[in-house]
Amino acid sequence: MSGTTAYVIGNEAYVSAEYARAEGDKLWSKVWQVACREEEIEAVGDYVTYDVGEESIIVVRVAEDRIAAYFNVCQHRGRRLTSGCGKAKGFVCPFHAWSWDLEGQCKGIVRGDAWGDALAPEDVPLQSVKVDRWGGWVFVNMDPDCVPLREYLEPAATMLDPFELQHMRYRW
Questions:
Q1: Minimal CA–CA distance to 52: which of 18, 94, 21?
Q2: Would you say 37 and 137 are in contact if contact means Cβ atoms under 8 Å apart?
């Protein structure tokens, strides 16, 4: 280990609001992150919310073979739509009761007629987040221009594939 220099991270990395904001802007909004295990959202309508920094993401099974992810925010007033985990047929904003289906399409705007031609449900779908699966885990990435998950995980994914992690389950 000759020539190795230790690097000490200062306390500000753990307590500074400015440091946390920079992490959100430069790290968490750009990398693939584990949001849940596939078995946590086994049936259509099962969802979990994944929070990191100031962001919140809904991860939901929309079909037997498809998982979607959306920013957990109402397109009208920016309120969070849900928290924790559960089963849903869609998501409803607790503020003005706007609603979306599991595909992220707006299904209801309370007093939508008041908007006239200025706003239609197709104008306000939930904002998608990149989602992919590997080894039984569901990953999300807020960067629409991110590299594919498999590429991001290499070379570790290839080294771990023989262990068939997708067949493992929590024991506790």
A1: 21
A2: yes
> Are the CB atoms for 67 and 138 separated by under 8 Å?
yes
- Closest residue by Cα to residue 138 from 87, 85, 68, 62: 68
**Residue 154: which residues within 8 A CB-CB, separation 6 or more?**
none
- Cβ-in-10-Å burial (0-12, 13-18, 19+) of 118 comes to exposed
Among left, alpha and beta (phi > 0; psi -120 to 50; other), residue 123 is: alpha
**Exposure string for 86-100, b = 16+ CB within 10 A, e = fewer:** eebebbbbeeeebbb
The radius of gyration of the chain from alpha carbons, rounded to an integer in Å, stands at 19
At 171, which amino acid appears? R
Q: Encode pLDDT of 138-160 as tens digits.
A: 999 999 999 999 999 999 999 99
Instruction: List phi, psi (to 5°) of 117.
Output: -85, 0
**pLDDT digit string, tens, across residues 7-61:** 888 888 889 888 888 888 888 999 999 999 999 999 999 999 999 989 999 999 9
This prediction's pTM: 0.89
